[in-house]
Write a structure and sequence with these properties.
heterodimer; A: about 230 residues; alpha+beta; Gyrase A, domain 2; Cyclophilin; 2 domains; 7-stranded mixed sheet; 4-stranded antiparallel sheet; elongated; B: about 325 residues; 3 domains; 7-stranded mixed β-barrel; 6-stranded antiparallel sheet; about 35% strand
Chain lengths: ~230, ~325
Amino acid sequence: MLPKFKPAGDSAIAIIFGSEISEEINKKVHAVAETIEHASPEWLVEVVPTYTSVYVYYNPIKISYSEIVAALKPFLSAEPKKEEKRIVKIPVVYGGDFGPDIEFVAQYNNLTIDEVVEIHSKPLYRVYMLGFLPGFAYLGGMNERIATPRLEKPRLKVPAGSVGIAGRQTGWYAIESPGGWRLIGRTPLKTFDPTKSPPSIVKAGDYVKFVPIGEEKFWEIYKQEWGEEQ
Amino acid sequence: MIELVNVPSLTTIQDLGRYSYQSFGVPVSGVMDEVSARLANYLVGNEDNTPLLEFVLHGPTIKFHSSAVFAIGGDVEVKLNGQPVEAWKSYWAKRGDILEIGILKSGMYGYIAFAGGIACEPILGSCSTYLRANFGKPLSSGDKLKLGYAILTGKEGKQLPKEFVPKYEKENTVRVILGPQEEHFTKRGIETFLTSEYTVTSESDRMGYRLEGPKIEHSDKGADIITDAIPPGSIQVPKNGKPIIMLADRQTTGGYAKIGVVARVDIPKVAQKRPGERIRFKAISIEKAQETLIRQEKLMKAIKFFLRGEMRAYKVKTFGEEIIAFTKIEKKK
């Protein structure tokens, strides 16, 4: 399908590449988004890649809608680069105080806790996009065998780094926030740090591998990342 | 330095927002009413993006620990050391002076600008407070803020001509560019949206305003979309058919179909609506919206140079209508 252009207000344009979540469409999205960002035309404000679309925020004082449609067309031929596949390893302590809901996830799916850990840490997850809250990654590729509904009543405070499952989705809380995901573990990494550029440990288009670690290793990394033990 | 002695409502430091990090899930934030905030900054000789204070409904009381030039943006009574002073005009305050800002007579957000701006450590390139991620914090009594360095001379006594003072109406027609997901609505749904009156509910904050009014009908594609981006002013319509207008602190992406996006020139009008006040929507072409925005930006620039003393403003009559025109003041060689 040919990409479609659509105005999204007077200062943003959506380039829509498809109408389903697929790795192929998402790869095209990131290739085009990256190329536009790299070219950095003077009217560009910022580029936001999503599952199936690229939103280009622009300055309408410098370029009109019809002009931007024409200006963006050459970027559409951008193809995903084959060799580059950035894999970000996320160490996780599963279970215990770090993942208080892992037992529930196991029981709900008729599995043992070890099986949950194995199934969760096995795949290479694709980061389709970031959004919602700072550093929140939309990951693709979780095995349905560990899918579990959200908590009926969300927790008021989930520590940053908590790894959870919500329905068929998995991911981590990049910042401390309220949340209804089933927590199965926690990473000691500071996955979102506004004092760093880029602020997030992953970016859209990356791949994520969860690596099970022990409690001792957790605190070792934690101290390096966060300073003093909390 | 200034000290907040009384903070009766949410007061935060804001600038024009945090750009370039939406692809990392970081919301833009920034002032709710860009026009009022920029005008307040111009009055004290600041640039558009200078950090200033934004308050909701009821302004704070401020004690000056050093002299400073300030201006208030908003329809509000202001007292300096107990004596009434005007909004939309810049004043010189001395050490020990007390500035009291009352309750807004109209509108929802008010601004306090200081010459040189409020000094702050930017987070990801911006001083905008974004509470959900602890970028900055809500200000409270006892907080002391440093002001940026500025030459104060000549910055006081500037007044915004009354023709340019923003008016915060109780009812407004807000112009909207339809889409990008108009196919998720029936023809009747779009008609309902464009012909009905909607009321701002109390479930409204810096993130977005929820509206109450006739239900907007979705097409068989339904209310949910594959999560995509949310530009400022996006009007999402969830399954209940009630529109939500996404504002400064909106999340960067969302999964409800967007029936339209408010034209940027009308976003301040929306932001200044109080719960209970009403909105009507009117479709506008993308071309018309961009033209209107360019015209507004030219005017903002002229006002900025006029307040700096680099342009002269005068009234002219064209076609029986009185308008304000600007001319550059030629510098003597």
